[in-house]
Predict the structure.
Amino acid sequence: MTVPLIEYKPASRPLPPEQREEVLASPGFGHHFTDHMVTITWTEDAGWHSARLVPYGPLPIDPANMTLHYAQTVFEGLKVHRRPDGGLAAFRPEENARRFQASAHRMAMPELPVETFISACEALVGQDRAWVPSRPGHSLYLRPFMFATEPGLGVRASREFLFVVIASPTDGYFAGEIRPLSVWVAEDYVRAVPGGTGAAKTGANYAASLMGQAQAVAQGCDQVVWLDALERRWVEEMGAMNLFFVYGERIVTPELTGSLLPGITRASLLTLAGDLGYEAEEARISLHDWRRDSADGSLTEVFACGTAAGVAPVGSVKTALAQWSVGDGRPGEVTMRMGEALREIQSGAAADTRGWMREM
Ligand code: PMP
């Protein structure tokens, strides 16, 4: 650890191996947690200190804890994959560490050094190695997060924070089969505004998204799609995933305007697209373009991407006034090839020519 561990306390009663194997047979997403967690404290006078590896369990919380009232909290999500030789590797953890710093900066929180973020992940994965699934497509999802721990009701930045990493085995977000998603375009709600916190991975953005997602489900759709807050016409992102629009051999993703999350999967696919012979571009895409280009057939596929679910095809779109499908509504070839290229690097089936996988 780059911040020395002051306490190393392995669980006295970890989940018995038979029960762990039962969980690993069908873990779902975010339901089960490994035996341990890592915590590191920050205080204004001492900076980062008191790193601990302790059994997974509840954290004591003061009723006046500032996070509960004013939402000063940030998080990350990254995956550790089991390789064909049994070794373990995380996908681009440095990128998550850097985004964690950017999120913290936006929320007036201290920035955790990149190497400390990674060594905390390594310490947890090293301890809970047996929890990293070996079934194809399954992985260990790491959830680093940080929150204000100072009690007090005055609205200001906390002077104390706790950084925590927990881990959860997963079989993917939309589990199993590749079924095209149906999306609902939120026109009554906005997720993020210019100058706001949309580009930070902070709890309040997700709280703000829940009504839109509930509306999507009430409309019979899988996921909500967000538009920009000012003009209400530019497509930003979908739920907790970024979007790509496929025009034959050209793929386009909404540019980073400051109100959508700069996804690491998004950035990786922009890079990988060239390897597969596609032309990749960041641009503004309007809801109107989406509908018109679907109708005239120039828009051949749309897919969403993110750490939790990888690459997921979008088959149909619904708004208050219209409904249409993309391409033939089935997973397209470009979507499948992009998803496959990413999975092959992560699983170790393809060479990691860019050094994206970090052994743990
Ligand atoms: N947008 C939002 C709002 C998200 O929460 C996520 C998940 N982190 C993404 C996009 C995709 O980002 P990534 O590829 O880094 O997982």
Observations:
- Residues 77, 237, 240-242, 261, 263-266, 306-307 surround 4'-deoxy-4'-aminopyridoxal-5'-phosphate (CB under 6 Å).
- The chain has a mean pLDDT of 96.
- The chain is about 25% helix and 30% strand.
- The longest strand covers residues 160-170.
